[in-house]
Amino acid sequence: MDMEPNHSDKIIQTPPSAWFAVHTRSRHEQTVYDRLMSKSISSFLPKMEVWSKRRDRQKRIRVPMFRGYVFINTLLDNRLWLTVLQTPGVARIISVDGKPAPIPEHQITSIQTVLENDTVITPYPYLNIGQRVMIVAGPLRGVEGILVRFKSNQQRLIISVDLLQQSVCVEMDTIEVEPISF
Question: What span, in angstroms and rounded, lies between the C-alpha atoms of 121 and 124?
Answer without folding.
Answer: 9
